[in-house]
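Lecture 7 notes: from sequence to structure.

We start with a single chain of 357 residues. Read the sequence below before looking at the structure.
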Amino acid sequence: MDETINLLKRLTEADGVPGHESEIRAIVKEVLAPLGELSRDHLGSVICTVPGQSASPRVMLAGHMDEIGFMVRHIHESGYIYFIQLGGWWDQVLLGQRVRIKTRSGDVIGVIGAKPPHLLQPEERDKMVKKDEMFIDIGATSRAEVEKTGVRVGDAIVPHAGFEMLNIEGRYLSKAFDDRVGVALVIDALKQLQDKKHPNTVYGAVTTQEEVGLRGARTSSEVIQPDVAIVLESDIAGDVPGIKPEISSVKLGKGPSVLVFDGSLIPNVALRYLVIDTAQELGIPLQSSSIVGGGTDGGAIQFHKRGVPAVVLGVPARHIHSHGAIIDRSDYDNAVKLLVALIRKLDAATVESLIPA
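Now the structure, written as tokens:
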């Protein structure tokens, strides 16, 4: 395993749903500590400052550490555990999946269940089971048995899924690529900027609670006071059966993507063109993407003070917001190369030119 694979494996296998990011935060702090000065906001975001040739402009890189998951909502007398979602889940991907409940005394393994199909009425069998009809089964038969394991209302619940290198070379499968792949991009970019050959100061922000409202992006922007922002994300690969090209033409292995629109952000046009031009200069394949539903940290960062020019770079991923997403290593490597080259161009005059006249 090379250094990048080890980093992606370590980041994705760590747990950290919104508001419960302590495990992943500890790893992020450990990895970032040798790269620059660490600071934080009061929601748990970690910020690593890497000085360059000038104190300004202040360039903010943002990748969120939280992953989608659940929280214990109710423990039934029969021993079944009901949950609420933290982040967006599609009901259809949940049944039969294993989860870990993060208690104060350790992890408790369970499986998401519902009424057995063998016992359903005919009219029920063709209906999608809704999340509020599902429960988590840890093998208990009473509330007392559940509580004996340490499970309490309010405990975080995470997907029980590990990192795998697939048989197709360069393809990786794991939970939490949304957005641990963005966190890895921040880390790898800061490693390459240790030469200080960038005309700015870079702030690598690994933010919290993105999946429940872009919260850490707001508070970390208050700490950084950015002049320009580059958000690093897992993009949605549209190369699965049933997706029309006019909806999404983003494909695995065809390069990183630049968003032209998401539900929270219309990226700065001049900055987007700078991304496109930089990719062309370097011979990096670049895909364009639009996401009508959902948002990114850029949606919060752009509103800081008088406004911040922001753009989103993505690594395409299949099956995000599930127990297992798939990415392509070449997309990731090209994203790092593009990101670093872009940062090296962001001097004071260039950043000033991004502001609409």
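The first strand starts at residue 37 and ends at 40. Keep this in mind for problem set 3.
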